[in-house]
Amino acid sequence: MRRDRFRSAPRPAPALALAMLAALIGLAGAAAALPPELEQTLARLPAPERARLQAQGARWDGWNDAQRREFAQRAAQWEQRPAGERGAARERYRAWQGLSAGDRAEVQAAAARYAALPPDRQQALRARFDALDGSERRGWLLGPQLGADYPALQPLLAQLPASQHAALLAALHGLSAPQRKELAVLVQRTPPQERARLRSELLAAPAASRGAWLQDALQR
After folding, report:
1. Last residue of a domain, which of 42, 57, 80?
2. Domain limits at 172?
3. What are the C-alpha distances in Å from 182 to residues 165, 177, 216?
4. What residue range is the signal peptide (predicted)?
5. Are residues 9 and 75 in the same domain?
6. Per-residue pLDDT at 29
7. Which pLDDT score is estimated for 175?
8. For the chain, the helix, strand and coil percentages under 3-state DSSP, each to the nearest 5
9. Rg (the chain; Cα; Å)
């Protein structure tokens, strides 16, 4: 294919473009070179995204024609969904990827229990969840442990710098449930303008001594 024809082709929708790129990686094989345009696109991606696409390409290479057609159909259906719905699904997927193995197992067990309930009971539980504040609903994306504590800890997580996100979640997971409740008391006692300082102090405390730091902060 001539380069000018490649560049003038209509630009595919984002999800389909990623699917096509992953498919080309797999079909090309480990020893074959990708077209220069795709090599450049792949090289500009962050390493985790590049590895994910290469893994998807390897999966595609192992599929038969029927599996590839089914995937292409699902990708087309995905692009037809409203943008807000796609964004929410991506957020849930990223949240799932960030959960620990224990949290995933707990969520899967809860999902199995929910599926076994009568339809009217399922609808009642769904209505209760939908009635929650939007922020509280999103808090459950943090998993069953932090999701339960999210309403009380939300002020600590509000306006959280991206650079502190992973570290703060790890710190919260490292606390016991009673310690998180004590931290919530401390958060509520701390004026809004002082919460960034409180968050920095929490992260600066060594993991092994965060319990002692918490007790000391509560007694100040």
Report:
1. 80
2. 134-220
3. 21, 9, 11
4. 1-33
5. yes
6. 37
7. 92
8. 80, 0, 20
9. 23
Residue with tokens 């405390």: 205
Which of 169-172's residues contact partners 24+ apart within 8 Å by CB, and which partners? 169/98, 169/142, 171/202, 171/203, 171/207, 171/210, 172/146
With tokens 């290469």, the residue in question is 54
Q: Is the pTM of this model over 0.70?
A: no
What residues contact residue 64 under an 8 Å CB cut-off, 6+ apart?
none
Instruction: Provide the token pair at 22.
Output: 């992953």
**69/149 same-domain check:** no
Q: Within this chain, do residues 140 and 219 fall inside the same structural domain, yes or no?
A: yes
Position 20 scores a pLDDT of 40
Over the chain (220 residues), what is each successive 10-residue block's mean pLDDT? 42 40 37 51 74 78 86 84 84 81 85 87 85 83 85 87 87 92 92 91 91 89
Q: What phi and psi values does residue 143 have, to the nearest 5 degrees?
A: 110, 170
214 belongs to a structural domain: yes
Q: 39, 31, 29, 30: which is closest to 3 by C-alpha?
A: 39
